[in-house]
Design goal:
Two copies of one chain form a homodimer. With about 150 residues, chain A is an alpha/beta fold. In chain A, about 45% of the residues lie in helices and about 20% in strands.
């Protein structure tokens, strides 16, 4: 079974991080520059929240907040759902599905080690299934004809 | 092989549509209300462009444009990549991968009939693979022991 660690090995452990006092504009600039759609807000005790493109749409633009004057603390989702590197990809998918969320913060010993999205999870499950198909087709090929 | 039509049968043909003179704020309000991350801009001859949460981040907020005063024509991606309902899901995935895009507008006879995202495509491929695994496991179960 693939785990969250296998996803991080492929996509890398890099997570965009900000603090709760970072402004929306500063976070948006960072996100745009790196071509990512989310940033994790970290405080001294680990991940404190997450701010995504969806939050920018709903809680900033539609809510009429000023990106220059709004700190992430006002518009982030907090607390944030977490998993560990040893969580299986199927369990990660189940958590996302049950909680209607698209991101999971990966923590080890209370420290932030990564961020995975629903697309990472689906792509990993697809790899897992395609390996399984190869294995089964190999069995079929070498089994006697009935 | 699953096709784009199979995806539309599951997610429904509903697409959020706007015109090129719709303002960013109006589009954002529509998107937020419906909980979607993109809107297709349609003119008399079909889909003219697409506007997504990523465009809101990069071309509006970071670019310092005013959502109230900016029409979608200034910030949409145009022309937009399209496919048909008979495109296979694997071909749709290949188009998205090659063009580094996350959405494909589905057209039939020049008319807009749907919008699919990379997550829809991955989820459909996963269903296809899981059916294949069941079929192969069934074969294995009923094949004689070597």
């Amino acid at each position: 079974m693939l785990t969250v660690n296998d996803i991080l090995l492929i996509k890398g452990p890099d997570v965009m991080v900000a603090t709760s006092t970072t402004t929306v504009l500063e976070a948006a600039e960072q996100m745009a520059e790196s071509g990512v759609g989310s940033v994790v807000i970290e405080d001294s005790s680990g991940a404190d929240g997450i701010f995504t493109e969806r939050d920018l749409l709903q809680r900033v633009v539609v809510a009429g907040r000023d990106p220059v004057a709004t700190p992430l603390s006002e518009v982030m989702t907090s607390p944030v759902a977490t998993c560990s590197t040893s969580t299986t990809v199927r369990d990660a998918q189940a958590i996302m599905f049950e909680q209607h969320i698209r991101h999971l913060v990966v923590e080890e010993d209370g420290g932030l080690v990564g961020l995975i999205g629903v697309r990472d999870v689906l792509a990993a499950l697809l790899r897992e299934d395609e390996d399984k198909i190869k294995e089964l087709e190999n069995y079929k090929e070498h089994s006697p004809v009935v």
